[in-house]
């Protein structure tokens, strides 16, 4: 194939007309000389500020539009706007150029006023069936007509597919942003590229065991923490941490990630150093008003950021209610609901644990509430329950740090005193009886009375035997009180 350039100006008029009509883009031949005359007239009249003139005389824009004469359009134009002929299209230009056309044309007029006739801009026209047509408009004056703009060539490129793709992308961005902002969990977008660089630096320095290094270099862990950049957070995050704005939250991240954050973060860094960027764990953060928040953290690198970690998505789910429920269930499993003391299971667990070290002596006291059955029979179980709670209240007061106090039966209590002897147990029994006397002065109804016995483990008295001895001493004390 060979190419021989041809001077298009030498083509016959018929061929030029055919070239115009067959062009694969919409072409319009127009006469703008009427607008040229109007603008010259304003200048001759002393107008220097066209924008101010239009603001005072908005009808001037419509006047200018009416002075444009469409001389010819090509076949592609008819197809673009759904017209069967040039006559049909020209008779319906008011349907093609409508709505915000005047607003766009005002800006166009201001450009012409300043001598910028050639333009390239985007806009919307309308096909004869009412369908909007997104177009790229290019306009230039034909050579030899620069003095009056009497011949201008306008090309309209159909950019509907591109604009629709842009609208879809914009819609998807809005949708994604909506999902982010209104997610029911706290979402954070963070930049971990600084951490990536620091960890890569360890490798470059020859550190072969990054896990051990991180656990023995807390300063490096703090450096990594400071390298995190928070790029965005959602509305739920502001609610969770009691922040009025993103700016307030970001200015107080030290409060949010205070406490034992560095301990958990060390574990996270170890995972990252081993190439596992996806991570989840539980931890505790703090609101800006000082309340602790139990959170379940999940972290993943966003697609396209795997090499740099410059976009990391982190979700924080508030599990405070669950943690409190779990703590309460654990409490119920180890404590007596009526008195708040340890229950029988916790007592047995402590006993087994203490028995594993026979070198430690243990003083044990067994306590029983006197006269509980008659109180239950005569005054009801509510009165009996009050006596049990009062006994527990007194035991809590007389016990010392390290003592293990438990309710081991209906009206039975036990106190384990690791490392203590009979004298210690005797002093506890004495304090108990004295405080019961005081307690009875503050309560109406049946008086509180208890029987207590105690014993001490030794080389010849293992725990089980000491417990039985304390129990027998308690019953002896109860019998003596009856006499």
TrEMBL record:
Q: In this protein, which residues make up the domain named GGDEF? A: 360-483
Gene3D superfamilies in the cross-refs: 3.30.70.270, PAS domain
Please name the CDD domains in this protein's record.
GGDEF
Q: Which InterPro entries match?
A: Biofilm_reg_signaling (IPR052155), GGDEF_dom (IPR000160), Nucleotide_cyclase (IPR029787), PAS-like_dom_sf (IPR035965), Rev_trsase/Diguanyl_cyclase (IPR043128)
* PROSITE patterns recorded: GGDEF
Annotated Pfam families: GGDEF
Record's PANTHER family? Answer: BIOFILM ARCHITECTURE MAINTENANCE PROTEIN MBAA (PTHR44757:SF2), DIGUANYLATE CYCLASE DGCP (PTHR44757)
- Record-given protein name: Diguanylate cyclase (GGDEF)-like protein
To which species is this protein native? Pigmentiphaga litoralis
The record lists the lineage as: Bacteria, Pseudomonadati, Pseudomonadota, Betaproteobacteria, Burkholderiales
